[in-house]
Specification:
The chain is an alpha/beta fold. About 25% of the residues lie in helices and about 40% in strands.
Length: about 150
């Protein structure tokens, strides 16, 4: 799995102009499910996301997890993070999991993350054309690649 994690002041998702989800301060997770990912990968990604210390403590150091900072999470599926851009000018998506497996593992990752956090996890709509809006706090953006051990 691959995720782009952004520390945000706020973030929201809309589909066809209709609001789907929104959060205040917390993290926006753009999540790609890759071929070969499985249930163990979903659990490991959830563990990592819940434990990331990317929020500032009283001393201004990135030392707090999402729960410790009192933040919210918004997870948005984004298969384009699986793109191969090494050759030519058109992205290839061979590394992305098939849609059915991608949805199942995205849903499992969200459920696993929800089990680890005090606040509910918000989501986009899998497979839909989404408008994602965010205010990146910092800015602080991280790329996270996770494989099951």
């Amino acid at each position: 799995m691959r995720a782009v994690v952004q520390r945000v002041s706020r973030a929201s998702v809309a589909v066809a102009g209709e609001p789907v989800s929104e959060i205040g301060p917390g993290m926006l997770v753009l999540l790609a499910i890759l071929k070969g990912d499985g249930d163990a990968t979903a659990a490991r990604m959830a563990d990592k996301l819940a434990a990331l210390r990317i929020f500032e403590d009283a001393a201004g150091k990135m030392n707090l997890s999402l729960d410790q900072a009192g933040g919210e999470a918004l997870v948005v599926s984004q298969f384009t993070l699986a793109a191969d851009l090494r050759r030519g000018n058109r992205p290839g998506f061979d590394a992305a999991a098939p849609p059915e497996e991608g949805k199942r593992l995205c849903d499992l990752t969200v459920a696993e993350l929800g089990n680890r956090l005090a606040k509910p996890v918000r989501t986009g709509r899998f497979g839909a054309m989404m408008d994602v809006a965010l205010v990146n706090a910092g800015p602080a953006t991280f790329v996270l690649d996770v494989k099951a051990d």
